[in-house]
């Protein structure tokens, strides 16, 4: 959370000259917690697993409230370009298109900006979503979680729309935020373990 894990960038702070702060596994100029948690290809599989785990938790929550769940539906736009959406929740005439992301919290606006980015990402697929779900009322939702465990308050609006009580919303929010934090810590450990393996082999 404090960005002081002993990554290259942190170890070279206040030092100059020949100190190396680039990623030991890829070509990134800065080996930081945010780079490892969000971008480094050496732990990409772990990031995908984290993402899928959070999507599964949301899906199970929606199913318990009798929403029909489309998980990773493949949809083509008018130009025949293929898109894979995270989640679509459908009940009666309403569809919720939910795009999940985990972001390192650089500042108080990080998650808000991520939510806006994800909300507009698939809006051009409105007609296709309506055709898939037979729902006229379609809402696009960005659902960001902080890698350090920060909860974006407007995520609770989605949980409310799904039909969760206040106490249940709080319980699910804590579970999702904790999962984002703990799996991000796991990603850091995996990165460090791969580094030790490389050193030992050398």
Defining key terms:
globular, two-stranded antiparallel ribbon, 17% strand, disordered C terminus, 202 residues, Trna Endonuclease, Chain: A, domain 1, four-stranded mixed β-sheet
Q: Summary?
A:
The protein is an alpha+beta fold. The chain is 47% helix and 17% strand. The longest helix is centred in the C-terminal third of the chain and has 36 residues, at 166-201.
Kindly describe this structure.
This is PO24 protein. This protein has helices at residues 8-11, 33-38, 44-63, 110-121, 126-133, 155-162, 166-201, and strands at 68-71, 74-76, 82-84, 87-91, 94-103, 137-146. With 202 residues, it is of the alpha+beta class. The chain has a single domain (44-200), classed as Trna Endonuclease, Chain: A, domain 1 (3-Layer(aba) Sandwich). The strands form two sheets. Strands 1-4-5-6 form a four-stranded mixed sheet. Strand 4 (87-91) and strand 5 (94-103) form a beta hairpin. The chain is globular, with a radius of gyration of 19 Å. Residues 198-202 have low confidence and may be disordered.
| Helix fraction by DSSP (H/I, runs of at least 4) | 40-55%
Number of strands: 6
Provide the number of structural domains.
Answer: 1
Q: Mean pLDDT, rounded to whole units?
A: 89
CATH topology (level 3) name: Trna Endonuclease, Chain: A, domain 1
Radius of gyration: 19 Å
What's the end-to-end separation, in Å?
32 Å
Biggest beta sheet attributes: 4 strands, mixed
Protein structure class: alpha+beta
Q: Name the CATH class.
A: Alpha Beta
- General form: globular
Order of helices and strands: HHHEEEEEHHEHH
Strand order of the largest sheet: 1-4-5-6
Mind telling me which CATH architecture this is?
A: 3-Layer(aba) Sandwich
Instruction: State the helix count.
Output: 7
Which residues form runs of ≥5 with pLDDT under 50? 198-202
Strand content: 15-25%
């Amino acid at each position: 959370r404090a960005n002081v894990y002993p990554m290259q960038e942190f170890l070279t702070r206040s030092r100059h000259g020949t100190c190396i702060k680039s990623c030991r596994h890829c070509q990134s100029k800065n080996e930081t917690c945010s780079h490892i948690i969000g971008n480094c290809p050496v732990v990409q599989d772990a990031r995908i697993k984290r993402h899928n785990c959070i999507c599964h938790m949301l899906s199970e929550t929606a199913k318990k409230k009798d929403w029909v769940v489309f998980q990773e539906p493949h949809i083509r736009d008018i130009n025949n370009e293929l898109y894979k959406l995270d989640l679509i929740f459908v009940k009666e005439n309403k569809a919720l298109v939910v795009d999940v992301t985990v972001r390192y919290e650089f500042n108080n606006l990080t998650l808000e900006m991520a939510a806006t980015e994800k909300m507009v990402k698939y809006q051009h697929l409105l007609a296709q979503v309506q055709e898939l779900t037979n729902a006229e009322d379609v809402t696009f939702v960005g659902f960001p979680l902080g890698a350090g465990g920060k909860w974006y308050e407007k995520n609770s609006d989605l949980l409310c729309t799904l039909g969760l009580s206040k106490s249940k919303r709080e319980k699910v929010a804590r579970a999702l935020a904790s999962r984002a934090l703990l799996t991000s810590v796991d990603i850091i450990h995996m990165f460090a373990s791969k580094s030790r393996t490389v050193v030992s082999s050398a």
